[in-house]
Design goal:
The chain is an all-beta fold. Helix content is about 0%, strand content about 60%. The protein is built from no helices and 11 strands. Strands 2, 4, 5, 6, 9, 10 and 11 form a 7-stranded mixed sheet that branches.
Length: about 120
């Protein structure tokens, strides 16, 4: 079994920063893609950023230049540094990890609230 533990959400004013972390533990012998999704108040889930095992990165257009995804393979952890936050970034953020050749796991979600 694999567990994902997220941390780092919270309340921040517009223009502020937060850093999300997601650590995977358990029966892991390989992790491929790691990513962050968010579910908006309108109940829309979108991919925010993803990073492959080899380091290829993609972002949704709305966060390019403001968010940075990174990973520490030794710690089985993925990070999302979020700068210049906007009220429209308010959402529940979920990490998603591809473990052991194609088994997808989701974190429990962490709430990010950006006040104007």
């Amino acid at each position: 079994q694999v567990q994902l533990v997220e941390s780092g959400g919270g309340l921040v004013q517009a223009g502020g920063s937060l850093r999300l972390s997601c650590a995977a533990s358990g029966s892991i012998f390989r992790i491929d893609d790691m990513g962050w999704y968010r579910q908006t108040p309108e109940n829309r889930r979108e991919l925010v950023a993803a990073i492959s095992r080899g380091g290829s990165i993609k972002y949704v257009d709305s966060v390019k230049g403001r968010f940075t995804i990174s990973r520490d393979n030794a710690k089985n952890t993925v990070y999302l540094q979020m700068n210049s936050l906007k009220p429209e970034d308010t959402a529940i953020y979920y990490c998603n990890v591809d473990v052991n050749y194609g088994v997808l796991y989701w974190g429990e979600g962490t709430l990010v609230t950006v006040s104007s």
